[in-house]
Write a sequence for this structure.
């Protein structure tokens, strides 16, 4: 990992993507210490990410910042209660992972006789937007993890070197 000062005097980290066409903040994230100011940044980004989990939150933060001990800070912040649960049965329930696993028992399906051209066009536009969003998430979450993983070795292979080749899913 290589740190440097940019023209504004900010400490940045040089990543493996320094030669790519990504945004400058993504290629050279700002180096931040594990401080109280950074701890306030995490819940703010958590809300912007629509209360995403720690992996997604880390990926979003890593698009612009290299936070020292980021995983530990994110886990500490996310372990704190984010919402107050009311005893009043008329209050809206907060979403939980169990609701997605078990489904909602009050699901209604629209009458299939009422499907027309405009609803099909809307559905097609929705699917196109969903594909675009998935591509963006892949870029933000997966590429951000690749950028910050491990160190790069410059050892050139020579005849006679032993090379191990394997798959992650095979032991």
């Amino acid at each position: 990992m290589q740190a440097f000062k940019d023209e504004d005097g900010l400490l940045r980290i040089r990543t493996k993507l320094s030669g790519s066409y990504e945004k400058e903040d993504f290629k050279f994230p700002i180096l931040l210490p594990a401080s109280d100011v950074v701890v306030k940044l995490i819940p703010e980004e958590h809300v912007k990410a629509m209360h995403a989990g720690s992996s997604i939150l880390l990926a979003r933060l890593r698009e612009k910042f290299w936070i020292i001990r980021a995983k530990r800070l994110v886990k500490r912040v996310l372990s704190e209660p984010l919402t107050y649960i009311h005893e009043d049965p008329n209050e809206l329930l907060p979403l939980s992972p169990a609701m997605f696993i078990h489904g909602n028992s009050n699901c209604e399906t629209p009458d299939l006789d009422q499907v027309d051209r405009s609803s099909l066009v809307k559905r097609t536009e929705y699917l196109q937007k969903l594909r675009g969003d998935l591509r963006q998430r892949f870029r933000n979450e997966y590429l951000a993890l690749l950028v910050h993983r491990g160190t790069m070795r410059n050892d050139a292979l020579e005849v006679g070197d032993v090379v191990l080749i394997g798959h992650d899913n095979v032991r």
Observations:
- The chain has a mean pLDDT of 76.
- The radius of gyration is 22 Å.
- Strands lie at 2-5, 11-14, 30-32, 65-67.
